[in-house]
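Researcher: Here's a chain I'd like modeled. Treat it as a single chain, no partners, no ligands.
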Amino acid sequence: MKLNRIGIILIACALAAITLVVALLVVRQQDSQAAQVRIKGVGLVKSLSTVPMTLLADDGKSGGLLAALLAYHDNGDFAYATIGDASGRTLAEVAGRGSMTPAVPLPASAANGFGERTLAASQGAGALREFYGPLADRSMGTLFVRVGFNQPGYTVLAQDVSFLAVLALAMFLVVPVVYLVIKREMRPLAALSTQLRTLAAPTRRDDGDSGDMRELIANMQTYLSQAGARIAQLEQGALNTTADNRLLQYGSKKLNAALQSLPDGLLMLDPAGDVTFASGKIEPLLGIPMDRIVGQPVDSWCCDLALRGLLGRYGGDVRDTARSHAVAFAPINVEGRQLHASAQPLSGGHGTMSFGTLVVLRDVTREHLARQAGNDFVAHVSHELKSPLNVIGMYAEMLADSDEESLRVESLNVIQDEIERMNALVGNLLNVSKLETGSMSPERNRVRLDDLLRDAYDQALPRAEGKQLRVLLDLPRELEAVAIDKDLFRIALNNLLTNAIKYNRPGGSVTLAARNEDNEIVISVRDTGIGIAAADQGRIFDKFYRVSESDAPVKRGGHGLGLYLAAQIVELHHGRMVLDSEPGIGSTFSIHLKIVSAPAGAAVL
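Model: Modeled as a single isolated chain. Structure tokens:
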């Protein structure tokens, strides 16, 4: 009986599956027909909308090109095509077999362009899908093209009937095969069930044998119950083990993600000294691919002697498992980088067990450059301060020993120049200190730059003439106003002009220019000096950075603060500094500032 019920269930499932497949196929066919109707409708409306009215209709009748064009679409789903106004009045029309044009006005949105809508069924006719659009020919006023198609229904196409029949036959053939397989597999179980019922049935010949048999059946049931309970216990244990493994995997992935996200590079060494883990930061720090590091001996991949010596302390038979060590080195494979490596043994406590060594590699290039630049800065500033002091002392002695008027005037001028040089250096130092402590906050006002630029030009002119340089001023008739702090911005301009004069050639020129460009004002300081090499242009605005003058015939000195201070002041004004330089030809520093529109009644300084 159970097998019979299974067969009935299989047949019912097959019928349900066939019904579902047929329904899905019908829905898909209906959607496909609807998509085809929309493609034809939109294409016809857009094509007819561009045709002149005189070609679409013959003196207002239904003939003309309209009927000729739409004759090719009369395949059963085409309903009608009309030329009329928005109220539904028809000037020309053509209709398919058994179709009538509904006198329905167009929606108000029809004047905005092409559209489509669904018209409900009425007077025995089915639902319609209508497409409309404005006629390009306006000789007879605003007219519209309307094309209607019968709404596709849920039908089974003739070409799909054979496919459905083959599909149904295949599914019905599967049912008896599955039924026979199930029946064959359940035959031993049915035989065992029959034998158990026979054994469990009491016999009239011997009550003792009957009691023994019932005891056997009871023992079997007890055994099966215990086996089932044990199986359930094992399944629960397996589930717990799977959960623990997943938890461990999650914890491992979480720890690995945390280690990979650290800014420093990490290496994990086993007690033998081989690398068992390396974070992603190691490759860019050392310039060595990861697959050459993990699982490989240190000597096979480490080409930096200092790092190899550090790692060698924690590998082999004689390894240091109690103390940490650190080294600083410059990696061979990465130019211009300084690294600091520290190694820490990992033990279980009290030196009882060693789990290996953790090595941390940190990029200290910025700190190294800052220390080096700081040392260079102290040396340069000392020189910059000592030189004018020596000159002042020398000319002061000349003043004391000479009564010649011309020599006294020259000495006083030189002393004044050196004092101004020292004041400029001290002023730059103070301004840099204010920038770094955040105490320099610009008081921005709307300013016209003409006077400020002319003032900077006048101050630079005497210094340039003393070095046989020409200073040019190139300003338009009108410059838009910008919001700046005049005193701070004057410092930036003076530093740029000072650099242009210092690094120029005898007989060269310095040009201070400004122009209106879109919504910006661009101020440029252009010189015909020695230029800046491409390798130095990326760092020219760094603090303390000075271009190497090893090949220059004349050492010009400097403390590496002028351009840094100018760039920081421009940034405080929400502007940007652009450098365009070519060695041997000259440099152009351009300041880009946003033009500020003036509110009503605002004053311009």
